[in-house]
Amino acid sequence: MSQAVEVQADALVPRHGDPSYGVEHYDLDLTWKHLGNHLSGRAVLDLVVERPTRRLVLDLHALTVGKLSVQGARLAQWNHRQGRLVLKLGSELAAGSRVRVTVAYAGVPRPVPGPDGEAGWEELEDGVIVASQPHGAPSWFPCNDRPSDKATYRIGLTVASGYTVVANGRLVEKRAASSRTTWVHVQDQPMATYLATAQIGRYLSRPLNGASVPVTIVHPARLTAAVATGFARQVEMLEVFTRFFGAYPFDSYTVVVTDDDLEIPLESQGLSTFGANYARTDWGAQRLIAHELSHQWFGNSLTLAHWRDIWLHEGFACYAEWLWSEESGGPSAAEQARRHWTRLHAQPQDLVLADPGPTELFDDRIYTRGALVLQALRLTVGDAAFFDLLRAWVAEHRYGSITTADFTAAAAAHSGLDLGDLFRRWLHQPKLPALPPAR
Ligand SMILES: [Zn+2]
User: CA angle 150-359-364, nearest 5°?
Assistant: First the structure.
């Protein structure tokens, strides 16, 4: 009889994550074979115990564990069932204990099913994308899959020469041996598991000049012209957001455009991925190019501690779209807000923004209403105080974990106003409030 593991870190993404420890560093050495989409290698996790425990639970989906070893604790036994790799220890570990877990594993990675669909490692026509939000990280490496556990990474990935690998952080090594090439990326800033990614394809890589950090665009040769046009304003966008939100949080920004069309673009730490269908100049594509970039501040540097606070990512990214609309000569943020308020008002008002259910995690209303909260706040505190607050929020919580309560406290502290009623109505009650008059 197998028993499901009850350990749970987040109510909206059940059966992922272990609150009893935190990972400080992931070291991955993986080999991917195009034929059969086969992944093999080993992961070394350096972790610190946060509460006394006799077991450590890792998440790993569909792949098979070959060998497992533990340093810093005695491993009594382990088992791997239903995506949970459970390490039973010979004695209780005290908080603060440091443990190294090494897992050798192999198999055919598959996206992880969840309440809002599949996520994770996904084969393309000729390559791979990893789109892990919110629960897909265990599709390619063993991890403590809760968003509040942020760690540094070294991601080594060996693929057939001819493919390009893009992963999070700096490319520190590219080593060719016979028909294979190893790409090593290092992510020095703490990163949540769902933001870890590897993008593999037959790509060209081209720098975009003029930004305050290196910006690179990676794409198949056939899309050169479309990408040059579609992403022509990427650098300008980055500079505009730097002005609104403060310094870009990471060492570089990379845009990957896949040869395949993709249903939606996605953000990862330090990079974003777009399908070929988004290399366009119309607002429908441009707003998403802005949206994904803004997640570097809102989602990647500042990351929710619990998935119920998803509006702290998506509401802010949606508001960034409106800011870019105004900056790029489109409707003003205020005009965008009025239009979206009207649209939202016509929809069912049965969603609590600060606590959506597991199937509403990426409901369109989270994005729009989340952005409207910011417009309501801006109208209440005034433009200068609003943008000061945004920059202070980003600076004070850089690379950290955040909650709704952190944000409302920061807003009250920076504005000196009692915003309790405003946030209660916008965040904690389902009925859509009217936008307040301008201050
Ligand atoms: Zn988003």
Answer: 90
For residue 388, report the distance from its CA to the centre of ligand 1, in Å: 23
pLDDT level of residue 308 (50, 70, 90 thresholds): very high
DSSP characters over 329-354: TSS-HHHHHHHHHHHHHTS-----TT
Burial class (CB in 10 A: 0-12, 13-18, 19+), 215: buried
Rounded to whole angstroms, what are the CA distances from 147 to 166, 200, 227?
Answer: 22, 24, 32
Residues around the ion ligand 1 (C-beta < 5 A)? 314, 317
Phi, psi of 102 (to 5 degrees): -115, 125
The first and second tokens of residue 377, run together, are: 């706040």
Domain 203-296 has CATH 3.30.2010.30: yes
Buried b (16+ CB within 10 A) or exposed e, 108-145: ebbbbebebeebbbbbeeebbbbbbbbbbbbbbbbbbb
Domain boundaries, the chain: 1-202, 203-296, 303-427
User: Which pLDDT score, from 0 to 100, does residue 131 have?
Assistant: 96
Average pLDDT rounded to a whole number, residues 408-416: 96
User: Under CATH, which architecture does the 303-427 domain have?
Assistant: Orthogonal Bundle (1.10)
User: Do 317 and 367 meet the contact criterion of CB atoms below 8 Å apart?
Assistant: yes
Preceding omega of 134 cis (within 30 degrees of 0): yes
270 CA from centroid of ligand 1 (Å): 14
Tell which phi-psi region holds residue 401, choosing left (phi > 0), alpha (psi between -120 and 50) or beta: beta
pLDDT at 8 over 70: no
> From the CA of 292, how far away is ligand 1's center (Å)?
6
| pTM score, whole prediction | 0.96
The domain 1-202 belongs to what CATH superfamily? tricorn interacting facor f3 domain (2.60.40.1730)
Distance in Å, CA 288 to ligand 1 centroid: 8
CA atoms within 13 Å, Cβ hemisphere of 101: 31
212: phi then psi, degrees, rounded to nearest 5: -75, -15
Alpha carbons 374 and 369: distance in angstroms, whole number: 9
CA distance 33 to 399: 34
Distance, CA of 185 to CA of 175 (rounded, Å): 12
**Residue 78: CB partners within 8 Å, gap ≥ 6?**
65, 68, 85, 86, 87, 88
Q: How far apart are CA 60 and CA 106, in angstroms?
A: 11
